[in-house]
From TrEMBL:
Keyword annotations from UniProtKB, A to Z: TPR repeat
Stored PANTHER family: CELL DIVISION CYCLE 16,23,27, CELL DIVISION CYCLE PROTEIN 27 HOMOLOG
A Pfam family the protein falls into: TPR_16
TPR repeats (start-end): 34-67, 68-101
Domain of life: Bacteria
Signal peptide range in chain numbering: none
Name this protein carries in UniProt: Tetratricopeptide repeat protein
Keyword Cytoplasm: no
């Protein structure tokens, strides 16, 4: 599930450089090991080296083209890199394989929204909601994840999106205010 893959905590409290070196060494003997490639991509993702993670996920998709999760995460990475056309293509390919993934519909909605394709965004969000995704919680989860990764501008965007859904949360309002101050945004 894409949500699990994005929010996995395998790289916390770990020396990422050492982990990366160990994975690369193991991959020398088994360069097509899907599990090792996934772990290496996760390290790059946590180190905010999204382009390297994309290259690994492209290899994963080549090795296992019917894996909806690989396609979805590749789409998500392209979304992060603002390569919206590619993101849309990969996310839709993922949904062609597994159309029961609400979180993929949510990411697709975000991608369409960012691309200015509002009707398609609403349709994707509708599918996510129909499949029981709590969009407010999804935005909050992303915000916390981005904060943990040091991507504070992305965190702020997600907190603001959650606030647009429910502006009654005083703690969230204060969180946004503090983050804006920290980022020197007026």
């Amino acid at each position: 599930m894409l949500r699990t893959r994005i929010f996995k905590e395998i790289c916390q409290n770990v020396d990422l450089e050492e982990k990366k070196a160990n994975l690369k060494e193991k991959l020398k003997n088994d360069p097509n090991n899907l599990e090792l490639l996934e772990k290496l991509a996760a390290v790059y993702y946590y180190q905010q080296e999204d382009f390297k993670a994309v290259e690994i996920y492209k290899k994963l998709v080549t090795l296992d083209p019917e894996n909806a999760e690989y396609l979805a995460f590749l789409g998500y990475l392209c979304y992060e890199l603002n390569e919206l056309d590619l993101a849309i293509d990969y996310l839709n390919e993922s949904l062609d394989i597994d159309s029961s993934a609400p979180f993929v519909f949510f990411i697709l909605g975000n991608t369409y929204s960012r691309a200015g394709m509002i009707k398609q965004a609403v349709d994707a969000y509708d599918f996510a909601i129909f499949l029981d995704l709590d969009i407010y919680t999804a935005h909050m989860d992303f915000a916390k994840k981005y904060e943990d990764m040091g991507r504070k501008h992305n965190a702020l965007k997600e907190y603001l999106a959650a606030y647009d859904i429910d502006s009654r949360d005083v703690k969230l309002k204060n969180k946004i205010k503090n983050l804006k101050e920290e980022l020197n945004i007026v």
